[in-house]
Each structure stands twice: as C-alpha cells, then as structure tokens.
Amino acid sequence: xxxxxxxxHSPYLExxxxxxEQQGITDIYSVPLDNRTxxxxxxxxxxxxxxxxxxxxxxxxAVMFSVVGASRGFILEWGPIYWGMIGAxxxxxxGFAIDFILLKLRTRNKRLLKGAxxxxxxxxxxxxxxxxxxxxxxxxxxxxAVARVK
Length: 150
Prior knowledge:
Keywords: Membrane, Transmembrane, Transmembrane helix. This protein is of the alpha+beta class.
C-alpha cells in the first residue's frame, strides 16, 4: 500500500517523517515541488484562458460614452458620428484601464507570496494494516491532503 500526502515546507514535515521512522516505516520518499518562475500571460489565446476578461467594463463604458458623445455631438462642431466614436474609444480605454488596475491589485498580493509558498509530496510505502496509523500520523502533523492507494 502507498500513502500520499502533501505538506507545506515546515518543521511539521520533518516531525512526521521522524515519527514514521520511529514506527519502523523506512520506505519514505519526499518530492519538493517548484514554484512558477515566470509571470502568467496577460492576454489569453484561443486555446488557453484563465477566465479573467479585461474588456467587460470597457465595452459597457464604450456604449455609455458613445451615446453621450453622439447626443452631445449634435451641438458640437464635428458632429454626432465623430463624437460618438471618440466617446466609445474613451469609454473603452477607461474601462480597460480600470479592469487592468484591479487585476494588478488582486494579483500583487499573490505574487508577494510566490517565493514562500511551495509544497512537498510525501510518498510512503507500508503494509495495509499500517495504513490507518500512517494516515493518522500525517494528519496529526498538519498534512494538507492525504490519500491511500492499495
């Protein structure tokens, strides 16, 4: 039987390994995971999307500003068509800028933790009757997740 567990890098991982060794389990394998080194792409492609859209507010503001620009364009010199297009462009740029700034503020806190948050996968080979005991030791030492495979 194999028991898989994930841990944060902490002294609890070392304590769990030590306790398992004291129980007579020697088939322990640990794999540290690497963090992402490059920044995620800002613009999505047709094949990959992160679910974040930067044009929603821009489209709404473009419609609103173009309506206002076109209605005011009857009074202004260039006419309603030019002022409607200027309003649409200004609204879209304003909405895009708002979405972009909000996205940067949300992801800034995640990037600050980028170097500190990595995990370790612990793979333990044991007898089937030792499985519950191993699982209890792992949970006792603050494992993030545990799975048993027969």
